[in-house]
Design a protein that fits this description.
The chain is of the alpha+beta class and 1156 residues long. It has 24 helices and 52 strands. The strands form 13 sheets. A seven-stranded antiparallel β-sheet has the order 6-5-4-3-2-1-7, with no helix packed on it. Strand 40 and strand 41 form a beta hairpin. Helix 19 runs antiparallel to helix 20. It is found in: Nucleus. It is an enzyme of class 2 (transferase). It comes from Durusdinium trenchii. This is Poly [ADP-ribose] polymerase.
């Protein structure tokens, strides 16, 4: 009553409003619902999907699995992942508890339109996206991008059926009954006949736990899968050939077996030369050449020939060198740099005047596989260096930035073709051991020095009056050139390059051990006996060295030393030294562990006896007398022990490990092993290093022997990642005293059961063993009284018959019958009639020797592996087809853009945007630079960007930047510099894989170069470089060159940039006049080093880890505002970027300005 009296008018108003809303919105809503219902029922959808093959390990754990349609979104089904177990929280926090595949229409724009993987429908955090074939009703199988804005994962598949596995092996379920075919015991399970099996199986709705594989289905399936693999491999090979034509690269199929080939070393290298030319070589940095190889004698002869016959004095020492280790370098990154530099030199030689042809004094037989190009003066040379530098050169190549500043002919990398000259820098001058690197060198157009060139940091100009003609490529100092160091002229020929990429290190020739003979010291690699600290005795090393030297002379004590022992002992005790010992006294001293100490105390007595802690002099009445009187018995005991440890029999140089039944360990153990050294009197075998490493596993594996010193439990042969490691995989304690390694009896793990399948043999395992075929005897019987069928015999009876078959199939005492006992019964076997008689039950059965059949426990995993191989090949095929399509589309797009570019009259920014794809494909061919028309919009855009790049809180000198007026803009088009820049970008991108590093953004607005497609993944940004007018032509022509950088740079001798325009103003020439120049450039920072202070002595990027240089270097240095400068209390005001490789920057535009 109250409502009607007080609020009836309000009710009428609300009702009218509701009716209007219904009329306006409800009817269209009903229409939309009908449309949605039509979309749902228009076509069928897949109720279940399977996701597999994701190559991104972290994301794969989230998205792979079985999905079921649960509801609808935007007219298409939503699929939810089925969780088989609750996921654990990850490193970055809670793991999503589910995953969805859903469709999003165009309501939020084209970028959101497509299929998505996410933890929740419509979630901002997504894992993958597929925008292809958006209008199709069925979900697309491939083409998924991971992450959503990343590259397409070519192996990820979303299918309506599970990935092929064991389901297509045609397993059949067989019901069985318990019975004894011969009425004996114990009983065994027999398969039922097919009709009975079918009846029971129809009644039994669940799966049988132990399916028995049908032999009739498995064996044809095995052959069919082999044929499928062969067919897919053939198809992929054809696709590779088509891609080769599109990408203009040479691909060859010998790569997979190249390193394992029995071809001679120089033959292998000739085969690899083609791969090097195609930049396809993918092997480790270097590999040791076998010590028996003829290459050793070739190098020795070449080094002797490379020492001029009229050179004596110090040069004569090279004639006494003995080469016993050669390492061949295989570094694809260094080779790419070398090939790229060769092309540059070749191009520059074609455009300039002819140059003189040069030859090397080093015999080309040293690298007979090398296809040297005489048109660019490519020759073989030698570089002498010390042991501590060889790994850095082999890994990173020659680096001119690390060259000495005191070089007589400039701050470059020095080479020679005279071996006696390289000996001076090999380390042999002070320690009788050293290293030589044989290298390829591109001299190009050389400059013949007429005297010292100490201030040279870069190649001289061809014409000092016209720098536009270019530079020489190298400097040559010939014998007779004045050195400026006195009347003595240059003696040897030297080659100097100022770009380390002009040389490629081919081989390392090493000497790590010193041998003393009556003639003096020799270079060798291994000693015949090596002192072992654990046993206190000498351990023999591999036999090949015995044939290399006079074995009798070298077996004498005091003949062989490792490098460290030479430094701390041998150089002090040998004849001619201050504290020399007789050979007998030295043998006593070494066996008893006498130490040499610098005689700064102890009254000048350098020799310390460890047994009695007393110091002695070197005289015969001092140390030798003491040892003979007090410790001779201990010496004899040590000597007998060492002699007993010397092997008396030959060993197997190569072993093959196969058949391991422990799957996780098998990948670590199986493979080819070679003897490399000795341990406890027996050889140590290392797994072939070219084998594919196990993911997240040890990089190598060893087989070694351990004697009884640590007890009987440790005595025997071991598998481990390193010799003596606490983490071991397998152990064999049988037949410990035998000289030859035991083939079987290995326990996995070391305290577990014996793996009966694991074999360690001296020859390769038979490939057919992978199928584990077994021969089984059979008897004819009817388990249920129905039709008879052949049944398998028990294993004990099978073994007896098989042994008789292997010897001779016949009876005893001249008859056709023999007798056996098995299964608790005695049987008579008629060899002629092939009948088995039970002598107790008098039951007779026909028998036969069955056909070879696979051991199904081995075949099923093999078939699964073949399925995985087929799946991989199919994925590769799809990827190759996609790549072929992309390449063809790219070619068509580039041709279209080129046509548009040539006919375009668009503004500057549009033209540059069209050219960007041409730059990326390195196709741009036009003059170095071009002036932008004065009325172009680019002037106002750049002016505004420079003002934004000047921080608002900066005044004083910085305020002048706000009065800058642009007078001219020149766009740079230099394909040579662009190629260098793109090549360096690829290198940085490769080095950043797997690294975590900070992201850097620029204060300079990107609209300054709106066409630039910058790569944030490598910290590619836009920056400014201030310079004077006279240097702009040089930068536009040759790019930024760190070799010309000032030595007084606060953060190192590099090229400096900034993203704050007021800082670049200081270097633009505007400090002394009313105008100047900026260069707007692209810059790749990669992994930057944020300095905490000055780095004035820096010539190259800092190491990531100073204690482990193998981890690599940073790519740039950043000085942030507030960094102490060391020049007073005032810290760094502006942000500066420093690079030590000029190719990391590309000059885009030269901006000329004046200050109003």
């Amino acid at each position: 009553m109250h409502l009607k009296a007080a609020h009836l008018d309000q009710f009428q108003q609300n009702k009218q409003k509701a009716d209007a809303l219904q009329k306006a919105h409800l009817n269209p809503l009903v229409g939309s619902k009908r449309k949605a219902d039509a979309m749902i029922s228009e076509k069928d959808f897949e109720p279940v999907l399977y996701v597999s093959g994701c190559s991104h390990a972290l994301i794969a754990a989230h998205i792979e699995g079985r999905y079921t349609a649960t509801k609808w979104n935007h007219g298409k089904p939503i699929y939810e992942k089925e969780q088989t177990k609750q996921p654990a929280d990850g490193f970055w926090g809670p793991t999503p508890r589910s995953a969805f595949i859903y469709f999003w229409d165009e309501r939020d724009g084209a970028l959101q339109h497509g299929w998505w993987f996410a933890p929740i429908v419509g979630h901002n955090n997504v894992w993958a996206f597929n925008g292809a074939n958006r209008e199709a009703e069925v979900l697309t199988e491939s083409g998924w991008r991971i992450t959503f804005d990343g590259d397409i994962d070519k192996t990820l598949r979303v299918t309506a059926s599970p990935a092929k596995g064991l389901e297509d092996l045609k397993l059949e379920l067989r019901w069985e009954f318990l019975a004894s075919p011969e009425g004996a015991s114990p009983e065994d399970w027999q398969p039922m006949k097919q009709d009975m099996n079918d009846v029971l199986e129809k009644r039994w709705a669940k799966h049988w736990d132990e399916p028995r594989a049908s032999m009739a289905a498995v064996l044809p399936k095995l052959m069919a899968k082999d044929a499928e693999i062969a067919r897919l491999q053939a198809q992929n090979s054809d696709l590779f050939k088509e891609l080769d034509k599109l990408d203009d690269k040479v691909r060859r199929q010998e790569k997979a077996t190249l390193m394992d080939s029995v071809v001679e070393h120089d033959g292998q290298m000739m085969l690899q030369e083609i791969w090097r030319m195609g930049r396809q070589l993918q092997v480790k940095v270097y590999k040791e050449v076998p010590a028996w190889h003829k290459l050793y004698s070739i190098i020795k002869d070449a080094l002797l020939d490379a020492c001029p016959k009229d050179h004596f004095g110090h040069c004569h020492r090279i004639r006494d060198a003995h080469i016993t280790e050669v390492k061949q370098i295989f570094n694809v990154e260094v080779w790419k740099d070398y090939e790229f530099r060769k092309k540059r030199v070749r191009k520059e030689l074609e455009e300039g005047p002819a140059c003189v042809r040069l030859t090397s004094n080093l015999n080309s037989e040293v690298c007979s596989w090398a296809e040297l190009d005489p048109k660019i003066n490519e020759i073989l040379v030698i570089h002498g260096t010390t042991f501590d530098k060889i790994d850095q050169i082999a890994t990173c190549g020659f680096d001119e930035r690390l060259a000495r500043e005191s070089g007589l002919y400039g701050q470059g990398v020095y080479f020679t073709d005279q071996s006696c000259k390289s000996l001076q820098y090999s380390g042999a001058a002070t320690q009788h051991v050293g290293c030589l690197i044989i290298a390829r060198l591109v001299l190009g157009r050389p400059f013949f020095a007429g005297g010292p060139q100490k201030n040279l940091k870069i190649e001289p100009f061809l014409d000092v009056n016209d720098p536009s003609k270019g530079r020489f490529h190298s400097v040559i100092a010939r014998p007779g050139t004045p050195t400026g160091l006195g009347p003595q002229p240059q003696v040897h020929q030297e080659y100097v390059v100022f770009d380390g990429a002009q040389a490629y290190p081919e081989m390392i020739v090493l000497g790590e051990v010193a041998i003393w003979t009556s003639q003096g010291w020799l270079w060798v690699r291994n000693s015949v006996r090596q002192w072992d600290e654990r046993s206190g005795s000498y351990i023999p090393l591999p036999h090949f060295l015995w044939s290399r030297f006079d074995a009798k002379a070298l077996q004498a004590p005091g003949s062989v030393y490792c490098c460290s022992c030479w430094k701390v002992w041998a150089r002090h005790v040998k004849p001619g030294s201050k504290y020399e010992l007789s050979s007998a006294c030295e043998e006593l001293a070494v066996r008893l562990g006498v130490e040499f100490e610098v005689p700064m105390s102890h009254s000048g007595n350098p020799y310390k006896c460890p047994l009695c802690k007393t110091y002695f002099n070197h005289g015969t009445a001092s140390l030798e007398r003491h040892l003979k009187l007090n410790h001779l018995d201990q010496f004899q005991q040590n000597k007998r022990k060492a002699d007993a440890m010397t092997p008396q029999k030959d060993f197997e140089p190569v072993l093959h490990v196969s058949g391991c039944s422990h799957y996780p360990i098998a990948a670590l153990l199986e493979g080819r092993y070679s003897a490399i050294k000795w341990n406890h009197g027996k050889p140590v075998y290392e797994k072939d290093p070219t084998a594919k490493p196990v993911h997240d596993g040890p990089s190598s594996a060893f087989i070694y022997f351990w004697d009884e010193r640590d007890g009987a439990l440790q005595h025997g042969w071991w598998f481990a990642p390193t010799v003596g490691n606490n983490n071991v995989w397998a152990f064999n304690g049988a037949n410990r005293e035998a000289e030859v390694l035991t083939e079987s009896g290995w326990r996995i793990p070391f305290d577990g059961d014996i793996d009966k399948n694991l074999r360690v043999t001296a020859g390769p395992a038979d490939e057919l063993e992978d199928f584990k075929l077994e021969l089984r005897w059979e008897f004819l019987a009817s388990p249920e009284g129905a039709a008879e069928d052949w049944q398998l015999m028990r294993q004990d009876m099978n073994n007896v018959l098989e042994k008789r078959w292997a010897k001779h199939w016949g009876g005893d005492n001249g008859t056709d019958i023999f007798f056996v006992e098995a299964n608790g019964f005695k049987y008579g076997i008629d060899c002629r009639c092939m009948v088995q008689s039970n002598l107790q039950t008098h039951r007779k059965r026909r028998i036969r020797r069955g056909l070879p059949r696979p051991n199904m426990t081995q075949v099923l995993p093999k078939l699964a592996a073949k399925d995985a191989e087929i799946e991989r090949l199919q994925a590769d095929k799809h990827g190759l087809l996609d790549e072929r399509t992309e390449l063809a589309a790219k070619v068509a797009k580039l041709e279209q853009e080129r046509s548009i570019l040539l006919n375009s009259q668009a503004d500057h920014a549009t033209q540059m945007m069209l050219q960007e794809s041409w730059r990326m494909s390195r196709q741009l061919q036009m003059k170095v630079y071009k002036e932008v028309p004065a009325g172009d919009q680019a002037y106002a855009t750049i002016q505004d960007a420079l003002l934004v790049a000047c921080p608002q809180e900066h005044f004083g000198d910085c305020h002048r930047m706000r009065r800058v007026s642009i007078t001219k803009v020149t766009q740079i088009f230099n394909v040579r510099i662009w190629k260098d820049y793109e090549f360096r970008k690829d290198q940085v991108r490769k080095e950043l894989e797997g690294r975590a590093f900070p992201c850097v953004t620029s204060n300079l607005p990107s609209k300054a170069c709106s066409w630039a497609e910058l790569d944030a993944k490598i910290n590619e940004i836009l920056v400014i470089h201030g310079t004077t007018l006279e240097k702009t032509d040089q930068i536009a022509t040759y790019g930024f060159d760190e070799r010309l950088a000032r030595e007084s740079g606060l953060y190192g001798q590099g090229v400096y940039f900034t993203d704050q325009s007021c800082k670049s103003l200081q270097y633009s020439g505007a400090a002394t006049q009313d105008g100047g120049c900026f260069i707007i450039a692209r810059l790749v920072l990669g992994h930057p080093f944020f300095t905490g202070g000055p780095l004035k002595n820096g010539k190259v990027e800092p190491f990531l880890d100073p204690l482990d240089p193998s981890k690599g270097r940073f790519h740039s240095v950043i000085a942030k505002p507030g960094t102490p400068t060391g020049l007073g209390p005032q810290p760094q005001v502006h942000r500066e970027y420093v690079i030590f490789n000029g190719a990391q920057a590309y000059p885009e535009m030269i901006v000329h300005f004046k200050i109003t």
